[in-house]
Amino acid sequence: MQLYQYDHCPNCVRADMVANYKALFHEKIYLLHGDDDECYALLKKQSSFKNRQLPIFKSDDNTIITDGLKIARYLDKIGNSEKPIRPSTKNITAHNILEEAELHINCLVFPRNILLGLPEFSSRQSRDEFRIKKESEIRRPFEKALEETQHHKKIVETALQRLPEQSLPSNHDHTISWDDVMLFPKLRNLTMVLNLQFPDHLRRYIDEVAQATSIHTYYHFEI
Questions:
Q1: Mean of the pLDDT values across residues 153-177?
Q2: Signal sequence span per UniProt (predicted)?
């Protein structure tokens, strides 16, 4: 099995979380951002391939799935049945709070993505293409966003303080939930921001979900 992905991409992380958690051996293939024509040329031969976004999952029987959550749910079905994923409680409050702060989160995360040495940004072209696309989204150059770090941090930290306390894997026999699959990737990206203050309960939540799903955080990369 192969999972084509980017390290920084929340949708990719969702699929990888479930694959790791369900003990499914899979080859992780990190593509260069904006330089994935060879992969697409291969996968477009499959009639089911329509989406030019990662992640892309290819099974041993050449089944192709191209949506992160669809991949995650497929892997849940075929993976270790002794590692259940608890149902979602529709954690709307947390997602609404983060959505309100989305611009400020992106201003912190996007410029740092290309500074971490991630495999998808190992070429100048991949970094430049990402920069052009994301600077348009945040409506400012990356340099300006980095200069404004303290402003964006203050707003994001306020949002993090408002997040309700999340149920921990350790409270449920070290299992994860579909709420974790949705929320954790967003919080994980914020761990790349130097000295960003997480509430203690949220830091523990991030650490426990990371351990349960074998997904690394970015604390050691902090910029």
A1: 97
A2: none
